[in-house]
Amino acid sequence: MWRNDSSRKKSSSKQTLKERDVRHVRIEDVSALYEIYEFQEEIGHGSFGIVVSVVEKQTNENYAVKIVNKYSTVVHQLSKVYREIKILKTVNHPNIVYLYKVFESAKKIYMVMERCRGNLKEVFENKKPFSEKTTKKIIKQLANAVYYLHKNQIVHRDIKMENILLSKNPDNPTDLYFIKLSDFGLSVIKAGSFIQGMMHDRCGTMLYMAPEILLERTYSELCDVWSIGIILYTLLCAKYPFADRHQEELINQICSKDPDYSPIELTPDAVDLLKCILVRDA
């Protein structure tokens, strides 16, 4: 059922995306948005801001607006927000959240994106293993999105269940697990050559971080593939492959210990795939 085509191997295919025609509008203050949208409840938060549900008054369409307070965001973090906008203005993939418009005032940035109905972490809170069929469906979509990003020199660096949103499948209204990868606040666009494209800064969410990041070594886009492996294991086993309340022990587990591959939920094919993905650098 599983194919071992998601191992931590580098792809040599490279492309450069052109920016989509996404409106970036300067406004005096939020009152301009109140004329266009009806603001509703807060539905989440990203790396550098909160996310609010809105309804466009003219069309009655639902959107999610990520709001970043420029004054409460330090300068180097604000540059990451603009980088996230740049990335979202270029990407266009069915399994990546879509950016429609950007509004910006002197104090805040408003990113108008497609509205999803929740995230994978909320579903996982039931603590029941996902079936192989459902897990394969989710992982295939996620792998396709990540392959698209890497092919276009983009590394996400914070792939986790909270950042995998559940959306409507335009081709199948009954599909409960049509996913959208979101929150590009820690993402980077790689430089030209392999050496130039290596990254150094430690970032992400520890449960999903690759060993080379935790060990503060240089690392590549393969850090995203490791995160996919963590999610694959977690969905099948209803537990994280590495978990400890103490940070030092958690780092030790990730960097030196193998996951427990004995749970009855794991078939031999699934174990083989996980062993191909959760590979530490030599």
Automatic annotation (TrEMBL):
ATP binds at K66. PROSITE patterns: PROTEIN_KINASE_ATP, PROTEIN_KINASE_DOM, PROTEIN_KINASE_ST. InterPro entries: Kinase-like_dom_sf, Prot_kinase_dom, Protein_kinase_ATP_BS, Ser/Thr_kinase_AS. GO terms for molecular function: ATP binding; protein serine/threonine kinase activity. Keywords: ATP-binding, Kinase, Nucleotide-binding, Serine/threonine-protein kinase, Transferase. Coiled coil: none annotated. Residues 37-282 form the Protein kinase domain. The keyword Nucleotide-binding applies. Pfam families: Pkinase. It comes from the Eukaryota. PANTHER family: SERINE/THREONINE-PROTEIN KINASE. Belongs to the protein kinase superfamily. This is Protein kinase domain-containing protein.
